[in-house]
Write a structure and sequence with these properties.
Oligomer: homodimer
Largest sheet of chain A: 3 strands, mixed
Distance between the termini of chain A: 78 Å
Shape of chain A: globular
Helix content of chain A: 55-70%
Radius of gyration of chain A: 24 Å
Number of helices of chain A: 22
Strand content of chain A: under 5%
Chain lengths: 525, 525
């Protein structure tokens, strides 16, 4: 039976190529994993004098990873694997791996090493300058650096290539496949809802209601004195209840909260504390747990391929936001946890009724600082940044115009104007780090979270009553089976259609806000 | 002036080769540094499910380091640098770098990759078997693995080569340049002092003394109830007083105490706690601080070369032991710290007099377990192991004879016999991990510590009275200037002669013990 033997040989050859490819790929993921550990350790543990040499170690490893990735050896193998895929000789998961690796490979290949080094050098200096400019409230210190960064990012877009907008080329790093024009359309819908909705809330409908005993929600009634160790206990308890697996992860303290993973069985999050404000740590912990559940839910058996990687920053953010907001700021959630909170902290919660507590936790007030914004105003901060950075990259505006334009948009969208650039255009780290195209993923995350959550509720009608009994496994598993286990098999767009039957739209999020905040603020229709 | 130009060109060429060499060398040290972080994280932080993939990451990086080190590219450069050194074209520090790297390179080159993999595989299995054998007290479970490990280690010695004993080839990994015959001679001197000295102590000379109010030192009077957070405070306070730089290091908890470093500005130690026994953590902290001060004292500007590396395990151990024993168990040290200890823990120390405390802390009693041994008996445990492992590698005895020989030597040296192998031949992890030639470095450390300490006292007569005033900087700087800053510039042997004027001898250590314990036990001459 020579025929069979030949077929077997061909099949073996095919398996050999694919295996050789995934073996090399796994080595790249090992280096990524080590870089993640170095970064985590830098933020969580490293003594201060360690910084300089840590930077050198990271630079060396990052270079090693880059060179291995774009090496001729890897390129050749990738080409063979793509050919196998085109000839239909790989299964669909293998083809997805080939597709995703090719996408990233093409991008990295197009970026000259000189550009990468120049940007790294520039943003490293720009960071220091931004810190100083923000501290001293001097935008003009930062301006020349920002100008150079934007030049480099525009050049990057030209290297990478794009169809419509150079902004698309940058967006693609964080949200593969997303296009500025589509986002623009969705964000415009969102803005057209949010601006009047915020005005409605601010018109203080409770003036009348106060006559029947209802007061305007005030966040300050939640202030108190909360020892850190007791906050830590509470945070761990909540994380555990939501399903964070402490045998495959840990929670530490760091200056900024973040989630990172070395692989799906070692996922680490951080938090920070304010002894007067319990929710400063708790809500960020729930947020990071959402990120962590995504990472812990990725299929570990596929570690070393994009099938064990998250789809995009937007989808990632949808997972953190859905736990933080749809779950963690909901009445059912607090029906379950409020007795524990009161037991742990009789001051001040002993004398606050659950409903008042819930309304205070969800109070809405336009603020100057994005990271302090509530669910309603948050996305207006993002839309403002998206519009500005898109215009910068498209060359419609210049960096020097930013402070003025920032103030104008703040006035138009949020009705308040920062007196200083420190509270305005200088507040975020992103631009100093060259992260253009990153901001919109925050709002995409909010929109996805609402759209996914609506689908989850549709297929599990009793979901929220489960929350009120402290049961979160069903929802967690729904997210895992519908989103996490697929890794990068689907694009964000495909996944959204698969789960919700529709492409991404602002409608689910605006419906969610309208329903929730009409109740909290007793708005008339 | 063509002549000058030619010379300048040659000099430039020389600098180029050496620079290229140290650039590649630094990359190897970056990988070593990352491996140290991975190991530290594994022992201090890693959640349990992370273990499998962490093992794979470490294996990959270790392989990468090995292959880069013995690569043709690196080998060629090393050869050119050695040539420059032989031609007298490098300065003496550069020549020391070439010498030390060549030494390690030659060794690694001689070990076939197959051997390295086989040993890694075998010791990984053997570890599990040893854990089980120890738990179930069944030496015969472990025996076949030990036999195979010894076969491999003997084969390793043949690959590496040696002049007198195959044991020398193994010893060389941990104590470069040391020879079994020399150690044998020194250890015999030591044994000839220790065995009768221990008998003298045990003869209970205090029976008479008790009539004048002196009691036999009893360690158990130091037991109590010591909350972990207060132990941590004390440990950090002592570490800081001794000179541990917390801006270039940290202290964490781990199952086994250890010291590690990523470079001289990021040095980390660990400890563990027993709420009944304060000294279980404190003395091991002082020990690890000794290791850490060595690492923090290495010249950071030479990071990436052997000039910023410790000389040997023996010299490293001398630094931990000198702080733990000569300083940390001395009366002057406790003159300073005892009031603090009493304030922190009035129970039980409030009613124990300083002298009684000091004597209890230094009580001598033969024990079955090495890690629980006191200063007098500790080295007898090591000599026993050294004699047995040397005989195993030289083929004088077989692994099957070990339990019997172990008991005989315990009887001869320490006067006690373990009833079980768990308390005997199965107690240490070293052999299961293939660490033959490692044990003697513990005793070499003790001997070096005494010889160095004698030299330090000679050149700083007021040293101990400084300790009693909490001043440790002078001694720390003496160690730094005489030992730490040299890195691997000198061999252990050269360093010892340079500092003390003499080669290593047991005399300083036996003098130290004789003087200290004659006083504690009121021995007659």
């Amino acid at each position: 039976m020579p025929q069979v033997k030949v077929i077997a040989k061909i099949r073996r050859r095919r398996i050999d190529i694919y295996n050789e490819f995934t073996t090399l790929l796994l080595e790249l993921y090992q280096l990524k994993s080590v870089l993640a550990l170095l970064d985590w350790d830098t933020q969580v543990n490293m003594p201060e004098k360690g910084a300089q040499r840590r930077g050198e170690t990271v630079a060396y490893l990052a270079g090693l990873l880059h060179n291995k990735f774009i090496s001729r050896e890897f390129g050749k193998l990738l080409k063979s694997v793509k050919k196998l895929s085109q000839e239909g000789k790989l299964d669909e998961k293998q083809s997805a791996v080939a597709r995703e690796v090719s996408r990233e490979f093409a991008r990295e290949k197009k970026l000259p090493e000189k550009h990468v080094r120049e940007l790294a050098q520039l943003t490293s200096e720009a960071h220091q300058v931004w810190v100083r400019a923000r501290r001293e409230n001097k935008f003009r210190f930062f301006l020349p650096y920002l100008e150079r960064i934007i030049d480099l990012k525009r050049r990057e877009a030209e290297c990478v290539g794009y169809r419509q907008s150079p902004y698309d080329a940058l967006l693609d790093t964080y949200e593969p496949g997303a296009k500025a024009a589509e986002i623009d359309k969705i964000f415009t819908d969102l803005k057209e809802f949010l601006v009047p909705f915020l005005k409605k809330i601010q018109s203080d409908p409770l003036r009348e209601a106060s006559q029947i005993g209802l007061k305007k929600p005030k966040i300050r009634i939640l202030r108190g004195n909360f020892p850190i160790d007791k906050q830590q206990e509470l945070g761990r308890m909540v994380a555990e209840a939501l399903g964070f697996d402490f045998t495959a992860g840990r929670i530490d303290q760091a200056v900024h909260p973040f989630a990172t993973n070395f692989h799906p069985e070692d996922v680490r999050i951080t938090t920070r504390f304010d002894t007067r404000d319990l929710f400063y740590s708790l809500m960020s912990t729930i947020h990071e747990v959402g990120h962590a559940l995504y990472e812990q839910g990725l299929p570990v058996e596929n570690f070393g391929t994009p099938l064990a990687e998250s789809i995009s920053l937007g989808i990632h953010e949808s997972q953190s936001r859905v736990w933080e907001n749809q779950v963690g700021r909901s009445l059912p959630f607090w029906k379950y946890f409020y007795p524990t909170l009161r037991r742990k902290f009789p001051q001040p919660f002993g004398k606050i009724k659950l409903e008042d507590f819930h309304r205070a936790l969800n109070s809405v007030r336009p603020s100057l600082i994005r990271t302090e914004a509530d669910e309603v105003t948050y996305n207006l901060h993002i839309i403002l940044r998206f519009e500005l950075e898109k215009a910068l990259i498209e060359g419609e505006i210049t960096p020097a115009e930013l402070p003025k334009l920032w103030k104008k948009k703040m006035k138009d969208y949020l009705g308040i104007v920062p007196k200083t650039d420190r509270e305005g255009v200088l507040q975020d780290i992103h631009w100093s780090a060259g992260l253009f195209g990153y901001f919109p993923t925050y709002t995409l995350g909010n929109l996805y979270s609402a759209q996914f959550y609506a689908a989850a509720k549709l297929s599990n009608p009793g979901l929220e009553s489960q929350f009120s009994r402290g049961k979160f496994a069903k929802f967690r598993n729904w997210l895992k089976l519908n989103i996490h286990i697929h890794g990068k098999f689907y694009s964000a767009d495909q996944l959204c259609k698969k789960i919700t039957g529709k492409p991404l739209s602002a409608k689910y999020f605006t419906d969610y806000l309208a329903s929730k905040y009409s109740q909290i603020y007793k708005l008339s229709d």
